[in-house]
Every structure is written in C-alpha cells, then in structure tokens.
Amino acid sequence: MTDVTDLFSPKRVFLFSGHMIDRPDRPQARFPPEREDAVTKDIAGVLDRLQAGAADLAVCSGACGGDLIFAELMLGRGAHVDLHLPFEPAVFVTDSVDFANANWRERFDAVRADPRVRTIVLPEARTADEGQLSPYERTNLWMLERAFSRGAQQVYFICVWDGAAGDGPGGTGHMVEAVEAAGGVAEPPIHPLGFTR
Q1: Which residues of 154-186 are buried (b: 16+ CB within 10 A; e: fewer)?
Q2: I need a labelling partner for 57 at 20 to 30 A (CA). Which of 50, 124, 140, 159 fits?
Q3: Which CATH architecture has domain 12-186?
C-alpha cells in the first residue's frame, strides 16, 4: 500500500528545531515545563503569520518540548509531518521523550498515529565523514537536506533556542548554523524563557 505522505507535494516546507523540556535534574533552567504554554503560543503566532496550512509540510524530530509542540500545531493546521528520528522509536522515547514525565509519551504516540505523519528513522552513515558525526548532528543535516529536496516553493526554519551552545552535539544551535550555511529563511528564534534576543 502506498503511504499517503509519499503522494504529497508541499507548497512550502516548515523545518523546525527546538529545545526539549528540561530534565527534572537540569541544573539551570532552559525550557522548564511551566513555559510550555507560552512557547506554544509563540510558535502558533509564527505559524499564523506565515499562514501555515494543509498545503504545507512540517519537517522535525519528535522529542518532548519544541518538536512535539510544533508537530501538533502543524497537524492542527492540516499540514503533513515528516518526523525524523535518530533511533528507532522505542530507543528514541527513552532518551528524548519519557524522561519529562507528564504526558509526552502519549503525545508522541498520538502524533505518530496520525495518517498525515510519516516517521522516518535515520539511515546508516553513507560516508566515513558522516560516521564521525553524532546521530543528532546527522539527523539535523538529514532533515535540512530532505526539507530542501521536496521541491517546495519555500523552506522556512523555525526554532525554539536560547542562543547558547547545546548540552551535546547536534542541538538546536547546530541546526541554526546549518540552516544559515544552506541559505535557508530563518525566522527569529523563540526564546524558551521568553527573553528577547
């Protein structure tokens, strides 16, 4: 059976990267759970301004926090979603979804169950250079490549980012640099703590 998402040719692609909800033991707040509603409103405001809708494709990962908020908002606007994961879902949720408690696992499963969502797991490295990168760095570059390869009229990059280097390789800062290097259209970053950059 043909996947309905394979037949979808988007007008525009909305590429997203953003911080996860803070782990309970995070020493310094970056995206605390109490900021979820405010960040959701900020992302929705950008999507409203850009008139994201059913003709568009969302490209993102599926971590708790920014990724899932963005995916849910795009689905709410009728868009299709390509959910890119660095690992198989069962492994990914342990590292990037379940730790946040709350209902993130249920939200992850609900997003994946939507018929407009295609879950794509990072393939094996194609070159030795790729093999030197972390799975998260490779996923960022892979999402960027796929976003530009869909033949859309425009690719927009939206991020929830505090402007700092990440906790490890392949974070939002890495994606910001990759988008800039590729000449993508980047919206002003949404700060998870509400600060203006």
Answers
A1: ebbbbbbbbeeebeeebbbbbbbebbeeeebeb
A2: 124
A3: 3-Layer(aba) Sandwich (3.40)
